[in-house]
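Weekly modeling sync, notes
Attendees: AB, CL, MP (scribe)

Item 1: holo prediction request
CL wants a bound-state model with KG4 before deciding which constructs to order. AB pointed out that an apo prediction alone won't tell us much about the pocket. Agreed to run with the ligand included and paste results into these notes for async review.

Input as submitted:
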Amino acid sequence: MAYYVKPDLQKKEPIILGIESSCDETAAAVIRGRMILSDEIASSANIQAKFGGVVPEIASRAHTDYIADVVERAIEKAGITYADIDAVAVTYGAGLLGALLVGVSFAKALAYALKKPLIAVNHIRGHLAAAYLDEPTLKPPFVTLLASGGHTAVLYAKTEAEFEILGATLDDAAGEAFDKVARVLGLSYPGGPHIENCARDGKPVVPMPKMLKGGGGYNFSYSGLKTAVINYCHTKEQKNEKYSKADVASSFQAAAVDVLVEKTVSAALEKGVDTVTAGGGVVANGYLRESLQKACDGKGLKLVLPERRYCTDNAAMIAAEGLVQFRLGNFADMALTAKASIPLSATLRTVQNQK
Ligand code: KG4
Ligand code: ZN
């Protein structure tokens, strides 16, 4: 027997509670249709910064401390009661296992107590669904750029739940490269926003490798770029020569972003779509946002970008993907568990009744 009362899948504007705890942000949000009613985040990033990265045990404990309060605040600020929710959507992977388990266990208990369906959301699919919140009329097909800490790819969204990989990184993800280069420049974690700030005072004058520009189909590679930056800084340091960190940051940022913009726009033109979207933490980058906008404008493509705060980890995007799965009636059962890693190919496949 199902633990939930079967909802009307065609309901005009279902109310979805989203819960996210895959890394160091404990987040809860409520959406009605594609409208965000509330969006709450508590972060252990300040504690983590002291360690230069995320310590899984600290993240799990912080989630346990914060989650009940964050969910309560999301419900209150949305101006609804728990009974108004149509489904509870939660990130089940990928991410830190202990951290994910806090959100998954909480969501299971809540869904069970409320007799509402539980929806298992893949974190990356959440990043891809964030664009729907920005544009109520957005509809596939479109080409989308995924650029997060763990994945970087150019995708063709055939429907809301079917994707094709057009190209992807052959090694590091874009966000990973930002984080590693930031460390070399002595900037703190997470590196992306610090590189962006630092780059504002510099010019892209340091030579950078080509990163499969113009070649390699829609694939790209970040390891050569990362190594080039490390070598440049270390050589300067060994020779006791001064160099401008701002110029290095600016040159790296331009090289890392230009290839993404170029390949995304070429893929959109080849696929014959009229719309481009993007998602993932790196899409919060101002230089990327401006470059992609210019490139899309130049080719007459419509660009839908999630607001910056919905590019980095949040629960509204989890609720947005929850809505996609709600329409499909793809509900999880009480055996749902967390998954630390999910390959991109599996992420893009819609799995029925996730466990
Ligand atoms: O999507 P996300 O929040 O987490 C994952 O699901 O991986 O992405 C985190 C990544 C980090 O590598 C971070 O440095 C990068 O996104 N990031 C940025 C910016 N803000 C976050 N990269 C470049 N510029 C930014 N402003
Ligand atoms: Zn993320």
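Recorded for review: The first helix runs from residue 45 to 49.
Action items: CL to compare against the apo run; MP to circulate these notes.
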